[in-house]
Amino acid sequence: MADTALQLGIVGAYMVVALAVGAVAYRLTERTAEDYYLASRTLGTVVLLFTTFATLLSAFTFFGGPNLAFSAGPEWILVMGLMDGIIFAVLWYVLGYKQWLVGKRHGYVTLGEMLGDRFGSTALRVVVAAVSLVWLFPYVMLQQKGAGQAIVGLTNGAVPFWVGAGGITLFMILYVALSGMRGVAWTDTLQGLFMLSLIWVAVAWVLSAVGGAGEATALLASEEPAFVGLGGGLYTPQYIISTAVSIAFGVTMFPQINQRFFAAGSKKVLKRTFALWPVLVLLLFVPAFMLGAWAAGLGVTVPEGGNVIPALLGEYTPTWFTALVIAGAMAAMMSSSDSMLLSGSSYLTRDLYRPLTGRGDASDEETDRREALVARVGVVVFATLSFVASLYTPGTLVQIGDTAFSGFAQLTVPVALALYWQGTTRSGMYAGVVGSQVFYGLHVFPVLATVGGLFGLDVALPTAYLGWTPGIVGILVGLVLTVTVSLMTAPAATEDRTAYAVSGVESD
């Protein structure tokens, strides 16, 4: 009982500190949408780097990924540590820089606003926002599911899953409503440094207890010889490449990441952050995933439905340190979820509420107050529904995260074409966005196949295409549809093909 109280006290103290940072940020936040959602586009290199880093760190980083390394080997490092570190860094600059230029000129806050203006289509703006919110839902649920599991593992079941997940959900709702992007970014920076430091201390502590990295690896080779050679686990080249591309492309379209492209203070900030990104990714994912792999050789017993990191630390480190690492994991989940809810509220108010209520993009005091209320209600409803879903969804953290990543990935190619190819038409965008989403959705939502069967349609689709995942094939479908339909159709009268001409925009 004393250990449980200590562990919960450490986690609680961390949450209080995070809330205090949010309160300070609230006092400095201007009462404008641009400041609330984007911190007035003033983020510097360190803050932008760490807020993006911490926002991407989730329950998967500390639980799902190490669990996968524990069961199938550490090759996942190739996906997350190397390939995604590099692929996303390139996309960050190629797409992020262009979005920053366009957003700075036109004052865009969301991806939907940008595309809606480019193609003169309110409907496209709504479709992009709706698709984003649909895929955001399972990823928010992933954080809540991870939080519940973390508390259960930390307290050996003394605190039930629903209490842990529910408590974190309430905290997130309160924090997002209070702090805005400035508070989220500041807290993310502290969280990122906190998590990075803890994971390396954990590696040092465990390895010192077992005789060093060489001994831990020798034990792994003895117990699981397939884990120490490439191709020995569940991974094939097609699987590794498909997953790496899907995750990197998906991350680029995550609302909470995509909006950070608009928030950079300058071009120099973007260049520095994308150059430092692969290094930061390796510094976290290599130790986290290797801990999971080494645990397989150390004979660590993981409870059914539990996670390997808490189990490993429980055997080799003191109770208080295990609680600190779990607090770090909780920080990862909160730094993802608070940004998701903030971005989700901006998509809800600016891309759904405004056009669907006919209020346009005009801003006045009454509109701002009404939208603020809609945003906060939306955050509460969205977070509550995802919490309820987390209680009843049987999928693992890996499965849930992969579904969301690949769903967002379907947007990347149409958006890239819209930014760089003036030949892209409104019809081409509709075909690429909707077509790829339908293709991927038929593979991951059995209910769609059931509905098709009711109408006599054979929608039994394969789980892979010559080893390539439906997510990666869907990206190619989006490319073909966007290009083909654009070549076959003329631009609508309301489209602005010069909207993304950025000559003359700040290029410092």
From TrEMBL:
CDD domains the UniProt entry points to: SLC5sbd
Origin superkingdom: Archaea
- Asked if the keyword Thylakoid belongs to this entry, the reply reads no
Residue ranges annotated as transmembrane are 6-26, 38-64, 76-95, 123-141, 161-181, 193-214, 234-254, 274-296, 316-334, 373-392, 404-421, 433-455, 467-488
Give the GO molecular function terms: symporter activity
Instruction: Give me any GO biological process, just one.
Output: sodium ion transport
Q: How does the entry describe its membrane topology?
A: Multi-pass membrane protein
Q: Which PROSITE patterns match?
A: NA_SOLUT_SYMP_3
- Location within or outside the cell: Cell membrane
Print the keywords alphabetically.
Answer: Cell membrane, Ion transport, Membrane, Sodium, Sodium transport, Symport, Transmembrane, Transmembrane helix, Transport
**What broad class describes the main subcellular location of this protein?**
membrane
InterPro entries xref list? Na/Glc_symporter_sf (IPR038377), Na/solute_symporter (IPR001734), Sodium:Solute_Symporter (IPR050277)
One term under GO cellular component: plasma membrane
Sorted alphabetically, which PANTHER family does this protein's record hold? SODIUM/PROLINE SYMPORTER-RELATED, SODIUM_PROLINE SYMPORTER
Query: In which family does this protein belong, per the annotation?
Result: Belongs to the sodium:solute symporter (SSF) (TC 2.A.21) family.
Full protein name:
SSS family solute:Na+ symporter
Its organism's taxonomic lineage begins at:
Archaea, Methanobacteriati, Methanobacteriota, Stenosarchaea group, Halobacteria
